[in-house]
Write a structure and sequence with these properties.
alpha/beta; single chain; two-stranded parallel ribbon; 42% helix; globular; 332 residues; Aminopeptidase; 6-stranded mixed β-sheet
Length: 332
C-alpha cells in the first residue's frame, strides 16, 4: 500500500510534462524590485514592492492574502505584512515555499538588496507561476516574509525573523500548523558565483533530497557538500516541529554592502535553484505522502537547533575554518 501511494504521487507528475522554471522571468522580477530602491520593513518602497508582488501573482491567476501586524523593534514600532498565495493540491496538507522580500535598513549608504531580499522574492514569483500550472499532490503555499532583517546593525535576540515568527504563531493559534508538513526556504540565491552549503540546522532528509537531486542534475558545483549552520527564517518553523530546509548562499562578498546590486547577481543562479527545487519536489511530496499512509497523520516533535552564522559574511579565513570544521563533523 505504501509503495503504491508513493508511486501514485510520482505518476501524477508524469501525466503532464514537468513545469519549467524560466530564469528570464525571474530576472525581470528582480530587476523591477531592485529599481524600486531600498525596501526596508515599514517603508513606502516595501509597500510599492508588495503591490508589484500582488499584481504579478494576480497575473498568474493567484490571490495574495495579506497577513498584517505591528511589531515592536528595538528602534521603532513597524507595520509588517506577510503575503501568502495558496495553490490547491490533491491533499489539504501543505508545503510552504518561502523567502523574505524586505531589505536591511541602512542609513549610511543605499542598500538595494539584489541578492539579499530581491532574489528570493523574484524566485518565489516565478516558482508560483510554474506551480500554478502543475498537478500538485499537496497544497502549496508561496510565502513572502516581511521583517527577516534586523533593524539594528547586528543580528541578535528577537530583532530578526519577525515575519516567520508571526506566521508560525498565527498558524499555531488558528490550528493550521497541523497541516503544515514541510517548509522550503530560499534566501540570497542570486550570487553570480553561487555556492550553497548544507545547513546543519535544516532537517536532514530534506537537505539530502535536495543535494542528491543537484548531484543527479550535475549541479553539485553550486550545491556543494560543505556544511555550515545558519540562523534564518526556517528556525521558527523548526522550533514548531516543521521539517525545514534553508537554501542560502552566504559566501557572498557584497552581502550587506552598497555593492549588493543586480550586477553582482546572475539569472543562471536563479535557474539552478529553480531546476533543483522543482526536480526535488516530487521526492519531497512522496516522502511526506509515505508518512501519511504509514501513520494516518504525520507528527513531528519540536527539533533542537543551533544558532550560528546569523547571516554573517564569510571571509576567506572563515571559509577555510568551516571546511576544516565540516571535515571533522563528517568524520564523527
Amino acid at each position: 500500500m505504501t509503495r503504491l501511494a508513493v508511486a501514485a504521487v510520482l505518476a501524477l507528475q508524469a501525466i503532464t510534462p514537468p513545469p519549467k522554471f524560466d530564469s528570464g522571468r525571474a530576472w525581470e522580477h528582480l530587476r523591477q524590485m531592485v529599481a524600486i530602491g531600498p525596501r526596508p520593513s515599514g517603508s513606502p518602497a516595501i509597500e510599492q514592492t508588495r503591490k508589484y508582488i500582488k499584481d504579478q501573482l494576480a497575473a498568474a491567476g493567484l490571490t495574495a492574502v495579506e497577513q498584517t501586524w505591528e511589531d515592536q523593534t528595538p528602534i521603532d514600532k513597524v507595520k509588517m505584512v506577510n503575503l501568502v498565495a495558496t495553490i490547491p493540491g490533491a491533499r489539504k496538507e501543505r508545503i510552504v515555499i518561502a523567502g523574505h522580500y524586505d531589505t536591511k535598513l541602512f542609513r549610511q549608504f543605499r542598500f538595494v538588496g539584489a541578492s539579499d531580499g530581491g532574489s528570493s522574492a523574484a524566485f518565489l514569483l516565478e516558482i508560483a507561476r510554474v506551480l500554478k500550472g502543475r498537478r500538485n499532490p499537496m497544497t502549496i503555499e508561496i510565502l513572502f516574509l516581511d521583517g527577516e532583517e534586523a533593524r539594528l546593525p547586528d543580528w541578535s535576540g528577537t530583532d530578526n525573523t519577525y515575519g516567520s515568527r508571526h506566521y508560525v504563531e498565527s498558524a499555531r493559534r488558528d490550528g493550521s500548523l497541523a497541516m503544515l508538513k514541510a517548509m522550503l526556504l530560499v534566501d540570497m540565491i542570486g550570487d553570480r558565483d553561487l555556492d550553497i552549503r548544507r545547513d546543519t540546522n535544516s532537517t536532514p532528509w530534506l537537505t539530502n533530497i535536495i543535494w542528491e537531486t543537484a548531484k543527479q542534475k550535475d549541479l553539485d558545483d553550486y550545491f556543494i557538500p560543505d556544511s555550515t549552520k545558519i540562523e534564518d527564517d526556517h528556525l521558527p518553523f523548526l522550533a514548531a516541529g516543521v521539517p525545514s530546509v534553508d537554501i542560502i548562499d552566504l559566501d557572498y562578498e557584497p552581502w550587506h554592502t552598497a555593492k549588493d546590486t543586480i550586477d553582482a547577481c546572475s539569472a543562471r543562479s536563479l535557474q539552478v535553484v529553480g531546476d533543483v527545487l522543482l526536480a526535488a519536489l516530487p521526492q519531497i511530496e512522496a516522502h511526506l505522502t509515505k508518512g501519511f499512509i504509514l501513520t494516518g497523520r504525520r507528527i513531528h516533535a519540536p527539533r533542537k537547533y543551533v544558532t550560528a552564522h546569523a547571516k554573517r559574511k564569510l571571509r576567506a579565513r572563515d571559509r577555510l575554518k568551516d571546511r576544516r570544521r565540516s571535515s571533522l563533523e563528517l568524520a564523527h
